[in-house]
Design brief:
The complex is a heterodimer of chains A (683) and B (673). Chain A is built from 15 helices and 35 strands. Chain A is α+β, with helices and mostly antiparallel strands and 683 residues long. In chain A, a hairpin with a 4-residue loop joins β13 and β14. In chain A, α8 crosses α13 and α9 packs across α10. Chain A is globular and about 80 Å long. Chain B has 673 residues and is of the alpha+beta class. Chain B has four domains: 224 residues, no CATH class; 175 residues, no CATH class; 47 residues, no CATH class; 83 residues, Barwin-like endoglucanases (Beta Barrel). Chain B contains 15 helices and 27 strands. In chain B, the strands form five sheets. In chain B, strands 2-1-5-4-3-6-7 form a seven-stranded antiparallel sheet, with helices on both faces. The longest helix of chain B is centred in the N-terminal third of the chain and has 31 residues. The chains are: A alpha+beta (683), B alpha+beta (673). At the A-B interface, α3, α11 and α15 of A face α1, α6, α7, α8 and α10 of B.
Chain lengths: 683, 673
């Protein structure tokens, strides 16, 4: 039965499950489903999830998809055979970079550098040269690229990366080479570095271009298959892909900028958290997404997430604007073990989905964070989890006993408690990384906990950092899909423009920014977004003259002098680096524009109208001692319901563990808003 | 027992929290500094030091060369100012004779108080791009006394109870090139220290100051117990090593470093007695560096994976008499600190390698390879480009070394600048940057190749200074593995290759002409084991990647590629038999004493052997056995009567050979064969 398209749909494909969420603003109701992911065929999981949800395909109005295709393919080295073309004299830049190790290696005599994505014999040099001022010293116009194309074809190359020196200033040679090779190798994908990165630094730009090239064929194939399958099922809505920058991108754009999709999955969680925080009236949050193997943390200030521009995946630099998400290898499945100096250690190895934590009964024998939670009474043993799994306390205890024996103790409760404290310290370190290290005090933020294990640990993390506010969104296991569902289209543009403030005129900046804005407007119109639904936000990268790194300072057209810019920069510099230098001139280095194509954001109301009888049971739970603790069922709660910790709240996809000293209230938007009592909770 | 568990958890928490402070300091320095040496080269380190000078925490990217010397500096400052340290005081130090490294590395010590008592120091050691002296950048291979290397800062209270000594700072900066950068970096260190102190105060509040400091003591005690256990597991004994620096920069005489390493239960004693006297060239170090080198190698060999604090070093004892180039006094210049430290690290590796043969590792490039290019900049000022290009790293029993990489004994800095930054900031064009093919030390596992970097000088008036070593005496191989190629710094002008100094690798202000190309070639890492035992697949892979040529594969590895680059096992077998048979083996005989001519070990060989080696009197050769910690180097003395080669007791100990046994003798080439 065809009706007017009304559903917004978000689909997040994770390592174990594919989560789908659909929202119909008219009925103000969320529908969710979870189906197993199908390794190697993510698109089938997407179709299954759609079927499980049971909505008419042609009733979908917008469809945004978070995919781990790029990340997984890189981790497993499953990208396409790739060739690299460089300036003569520079083919080894990709392999040796600036001679750093980039990953570990201190004191390790046997440390071995991860191999370059493109081996040396597939890196071919071309006699071309552009100088640092952009002048062309040796043109590529007359160079014959045919032998290179032949060599690549002979070696089965399916994707070509081109990265020339100084192309960030002038990419005429690079663009010519791209065109020539595309003509000679019509079946191959061709990436050129300046089309992806317009910033100085040949190693980072080359690496980004190679990552892009390496993953493009796979991504294009996947997107084509997915689009065809969805069309076949009757989905008429445009399909967009979540980008690492926190916005969605069209399929065509995703195929061009695969290197911009590495965080396609986790950014959904950050975006989702921003949405639910907005509903609850929060503006400054730190998102805390804890899954089975890792925890992803990001800082959101004034409802916008921080960006990071110089990133690294494994040992490979990636210069793409990404949400500044800090990941650590500590999750519910992280293994607990004893180090050589006799201290307890957590992870980074995870029991994963197979065998999983010992208490799952799937053959795991090593204790994990989940086992520790079970021993401390934070997970149920008498009833199955909301997902249907029965946990086995005996198995968890046996696993802990092995570690206890090594340490010569019998007190496994103290051991489990100690392990959790260490895990919490690591996770608090991650929160500090995105806050303290970036010049923010975490106590000015609310922590938003989600992911399968987030709500279980977030209160301890908050206590550790003295953070007084915590929020647990509804459906914590589906927040990534929520973020995808509500994502705006987004394009990031940067222009190398500026100079010393003393020599710059605000009017010139406005003229340049205006031109950037016009171009961005055109591009978004090309994506089908009318100007009325566009938003363009400017940031200036600023530093003291003589410094190299910059601080991002928001800017909008208007003021006739630089006073507000200078003041904003100095305040920020003092907060971040401990000093400001009033005598020093400051300079603008880049102008950045974030251009958004806004989707209609329905007011999110999850209408918590449960039966009201939320109490499931009472059981003993460890909080620095055994405490009689109520266990509530979240589905049964109503807006306005309030209670005190200690309390445990169970729902599909997550268990919240609220310690003594915290109070919680059900917000009309569905979230749990929690506050530490004055003075914080006892440690 | 519950108390013990809670204690473990809390200790881990304290450790994580303190390392977080250091990591935050690092990020601050990189992001707010003014000189490329810091923000691009990352030549700085941060750490936390206890009130008594013991190292509490460093980060994983911090350079042990900087940080392991901090306890010495701190001890000196405590000795100087004693109970007279107050809130609001800040100290500066760079003097090598009292615990500094070289003058460019300026340490800021920022006392942090808790409950009115000195609790800790936040330490930041940054390499300042120039600290005055004879040549731009201050480091030069040709200096004769420390006064030519810049401003010497003995322990100095730069800020007293919150009042900055502006006069002292003005004097300091007035004597340094590109002063605004120095001021900027000083502000960076100051801001970083303040933020670290704030962070520490929060931790004192969180844990309680007494609890935190007691936890620090306990962490150090635990690390010491772990290290004692590691040392106890090493076979007791006395192990010897000797090695050389090329020269002090003024003559052609090498400097010898000698080590006697004693393992006695839980004690480890590194005795450098007998090393060459201090020199008037830059190749000297103060008292901190022997400990620095030994601590780094002991940590790497015995306990590489646990976090670093002072406890790891407590069981290490150093004997190092004053007056040698490894513990120099005024006025010996100390710019070549990294070179001396690399030599000592190589000695400790060689000696420990005799005790633990399975841990042996091929030698490294031998120092920092400081390269300075300076001259008029486009805006009328001075440009200064400073790099320390990495070399190949050494092979181990089961791994090849890496090409052009910061080594395991170094912090993870950028060793060269981005070529695009060089070209945007200096009148220089980078015309080549890549792997130096064939420069690896051969072995069953080979060392990594060095790098080659060509810098074209675009404008007149520039000059070149270099301070490097292992240009004459290359990195050693282990377990019969070959040494890597040496470092090489030359200038290409009008088709000719010029040596910019009479002493290779020690260049002071060589005048460059427009159009010159400065060619830097760095050393390869030493190999492990017999190259003729190397898996032919690995050799062919190296050939396919052109790390070695097919001609080198045949000559150095005995691998004969068949049609289309596939293996040809039969031909390879024959070639390897032929090469093995062609090796020159000599009988070593016991002499009462090892024979030295000045610093040089003498190896007497017959004219026939010399002729087979293709060397004349005074050539550098080496002896290698399966068991040696490193190849034993010496200089040929042709002696018609030396039918067997006489070796003294130390030589035998180092070779691990018996009198009368046959050992291989070969030349030690500095250039890729």
């Amino acid at each position: 039965m065809s009706t007017a398209p009304r559903y917004l749909v978000g689909i997040d494909v994770g390592g174990t499950f594919t989560d789908i969420l659909a929202y119909d603003p008219a009925e103000a109701r969320l529908r969710s489903a979870k189906v197993p992911s199908i390794p190697g065929q993510q698109w089938r999981g997407v179709l299954d999830a759609l079927a499980a949800l049971g909505i008419e395909p042609d009733a979908i109005r917008a469809f945004v998809h978070g995919t781990t295709i790029a990340t997984n393919a890189l981790l497993e080295r499953q990208g396409a055979p790739t060739g690299l073309v460089t300036t003569k004299g520079f083919r080894d830049v990709l392999e040796i970079g600036k001679a750093r190790r980039l990953v570990g290696g201190l004191f390790d005599t046997g440390w071995t550098r991860p191999p370059a994505i493109v081996p040396r014999h597939l890196r071919i040099e071309v006699p071309e040269r552009v100088a640092a001022d952009g002048s062309v010293q040796i043109s590529a116009q007359t160079f014959d690229f045919a032998p290179i194309a032949e060599e690549f074809s002979r070696r089965g190359i399916r994707s070509v990366a081109i990265a020339f020196m100084n192309s960030y200033v002038n990419d005429v040679n690079e663009a010519h080479a791209a065109q020539a090779l595309k003509g000679l190798m019509p079946e191959a994908a061709v990436s050129h570095s300046a089309a992806l990165v317009r910033e100085r630094g040949e190693f980072e730009r080359t690496s980004t271009c190679v990552l892009n090239a390496y993953l493009t064929p796979l991504m294009v194939e996947y997107l084509d298959t997915l689009a065809a399958a969805l069309r076949e099922r009757g989905v008429t809505a445009p399909v967009n892909i979540m980008g690492s920058n926190g916005g969605a991108m069209t399929l065509a754009e995703a195929a061009r900028r695969v290197a911009g999709t590495f965080l396609s999955g986790p950014v959904g969680g950050v975006s989702g958290a921003i949405r639910v925080a907005e509903v609850a009236g929060l503006r400054n949050i730190i998102t805390f997404d804890m899954g089975g193997t890792s925890t992803d943390v990001a800082l959101v200030h004034g409802l916008s997430a921080r960006m990071s521009f110089d990133n690294q995946i494994d040992a490979y630099p990636l210069q793409m604007p990404q949400l500044d998400i800090h990941a650590i290898g500590a999750g519910g499945g992280s293994v607990i073990w004893v180090g050589s100096d006799g201290t307890l250690q957590i992870g980074p190895r995870s029991a994963g989905a197979v065998p999983g934590p010992a208490c799952y009964g799937h053959g795991g024998t090593e204790p994990t964070i989940s086992d520790a939670n079970l021993i401390l009474g934070r997970l149920p043993v008498a009833r199955p989890l909301a997902g249907g799994l029965m946990l086995d306390r005996k198995l968890a205890e046996n696993a802990f006993r092995r570690v206890a024996d090594v340490l010569g103790t019998t007190d496994i409760v103290a051991l489990a408690d100690g392990a959790l404290r260490i895990a919490v310290a690591k996770m608090a370190g991650a929160v500090r990384e995105v806050s303290v290290h970036r010049g923010f005090d975490p106590r000015d933020f609310s922590l938003v906990g989600f992911g399968g294990a987030g709500p279980m640990h977030i209160f301890q993390v908050a206590d550790e950092l003295g953070i007084p506010g915590v929020m647990i969104p509804r459906l914590p296991g589906h927040l990534c899909a929520l973020g995808q569902m509500l994502a705006d289209l987004r394009r990031d543009t940067v222009a190398v423009w500026g100079g010393k403030l003393s020599a710059l005129r605000p009017g010139d900046l406005e003229a340049h920014a205006g031109a950037m804005r016009e171009q961005a407007e055109r591009q978004l119109r090309g994506d089908g977004i009318e100007p009325a639904r566009q938003r363009h936000e400017f940031t200036l990268d600023i530093r003291y003259v003589g410094q190299s790194f910059t601080l991002p300072i928001p800017w909008r057209p208007g003021p006739a002098d630089w006073t507000p810019v200078r003041e904003a920069f100095e305040t920020r510099h003092r907060e971040t680096f401990g000093y400001a230098a009033a005598d020093n001139d400051i300079e603008v280095v880049n102008i950045r524009v974030v251009s958004l194509g806004l989707v209609d954001k329905p007011e999110l109301k999850f209408n918590p109208e449960g039966a009201g009888d939320a109490l499931l049971e009472r059981r003993r739970v460890w909080f620095s001692g055994w405490v009689e603790c109520p266990v509530y069922q979240r589905d049964a709660m109503r807006a306005g319901d309030a209670f005190q910790g200690p309390a445990i709240i169970e729902e599909a996809g997550g268990t919240s563990v609220i310690p003594p000293g915290w109070s919680a209230q059900v917000h009309e938007g569905g979230s749990l808003i929690c506050a530490a009592s004055a003075g914080g909770s006892p440690r | 027992m519950q108390g013990e568990k809670a204690e473990l958890g809390r200790l881990e928490l304290i450790r994580e929290s303190l390392v977080a402070v250091v990591n935050e300091m690092r990020a601050n320095v990189i992001h707010s500094s003014y000189s490329s040496i810091i923000y691009e080269g990352h030549d700085f380190s941060c750490g936390l030091v206890a009130a008594d000078g013991r190292l509490v925490a460093q980060g994983l990217d911090d350079n042990p060369i900087h940080i392991f010397a901090v306890p010495y500096s701190t001890a000196e400052i405590i000795r100087t100012f004693g109970g007279d340290i107050h809130e609001g005081d800040i100290f500066l130090h760079n003097d090598p004779y009292t615990g500094g490294t070289h003058l460019n590395d300026v340490l800021m010590l920022y006392p942090v108080f808790h409950a009115g008592a000195l609790a800790m120091f936040a330490a930041t050691r940054c390499h300042w791009g120039d600290v005055g002296g004879m040549t731009p950048g201050s480091l030069s291979g040709r200096v004769r006394e420390i006064y030519q290397e810049g401003m010497r800062i003995v322990p100095t209270r730069i800020c007293e109870r919150g009042r900055m000594n502006e006069a002292y700072l003005d004097l300091l900066f007035a004597n340094m090139r590109i002063a605004y950068e120095r001021r900027g970096d000083f502000s960076t260190m100051l801001g970083t220290s303040r933020k670290a102190a704030e962070h520490l105060q929060r931790l004192f509040g969180r844990f309680g100051g007494t609890t935190l400091l007691a936890g620090v003591d306990e962490l150090i005690a635990r690390a010491a117990r772990v290290m004692r256990g590691c040392i106890a597991a090493v076979p007791d004994g006395t192990y010897f090593a000797e090695g050389y620096l090329d020269s002090d920069g003024h003559g052609d005489e090498p400097l010898i470093g000698r080590l006697k390493l004693t393992i006695e239960g839980q004690r480890l004693i590194a005795d450098f007695t007998g090393s060459s006297p201090q020199t008037m060239g830059p190749t000297n170090v103060g008292p901190a560096m022997a400990f620095n080198a030994a601590a780094t190698m002991v940590k790497s060999f015995l306990d590489p994976h646990t976090p670093v604090n002072h406890g790891s070093f407590e069981p290490i004892e150093i004997v190092n008499p004053k007056g040698s180039f490894l513990n120099a006094t005024l006025p010996a210049p100390c710019g070549g600190m990294v070179e001396c430290r690399a030599l000592m690290a190589g000695l400790v590796a060689s000696a420990l390698g005799q005790a633990l043969p399975e841990r042996r590792v091929g030698d490294l490039k031998g120092g920092a390879n400081h390269v300075y290019l300076s001259g008029p900049s486009r805006d009328g000022g001075l440009f200064l480009m400073y790099e320390y290009p990495a070399g190949g790293t050494g092979a181990t029993r089961c791994t090849d070394g890496n090409h052009g990489t910061r080594a395991y004994i170094e912090g993870d800095f950028n060793a060269v600048w981005s070529a695009e930054i060089v070209e945007a900031q200096c009148p220089i064009q980078v015309s080549h940057y890549g792997i130096r093919e064939g420069s690896c030390g051969d072995g069953a596992f080979r060392g990594g190749c060095g790098i080659r970097r060509d810098l074209r000088i675009l404008e007149a008036g520039a000059s070149l200074s270099v301070l490097a070593d292992k240009c004459i005496i290359p990195p050693y191989g282990v377990a019969t593995g070959r040494g890597g190629a040496g470092n090489r710094f030359v200038v290409l002008r009008n088709g000719a290759t010029l040596e910019p100094s009479p002493v290779p690798g020690k260049v002071g202000g060589f005048a460059l002409a427009q159009g010159d190309v400065v060619r830097i070639e760095t050393a390869g890492g030493g190999g492990y084991g017999d190259p003729l035992d190397r898996d032919p697949e690995r050799v062919l892979h190296d050939v396919s990647q052109r790390y070695v040529s097919s001609e080198q594969a045949r000559r150095r590895y005995g691998v004969v590629p068949g049609a289309g680059g596939a293996r040809d096992d039969a031909a390879t077998h024959l070639e390897r038999e032929r090469l093995r048979a062609a090796r020159i083996m000599i009988t070593v005989q016991a002499a009462d004493q090892d024979e030295f001519d000045g610093p040089r070990r003498r190896l007497r060989v017959t004219p026939a052997i010399a002729s087979r080696l293709g060397v004349s009197d005074g050539a550098l050769v080496e002896l290698a056995t399966d068991t040696c910690g490193s190849a034993l180097r010496g200089w040929v003395r042709i002696d018609a009567h030396a039918s067997v080669v006489p070796i003294g007791p130390r030589g035998f100990a180092m070779l691990g050979a018996q009198p009368g046994s046959l050992v291989e003798i070969r030349v030690a080439p500095t250039f890729p064969a």
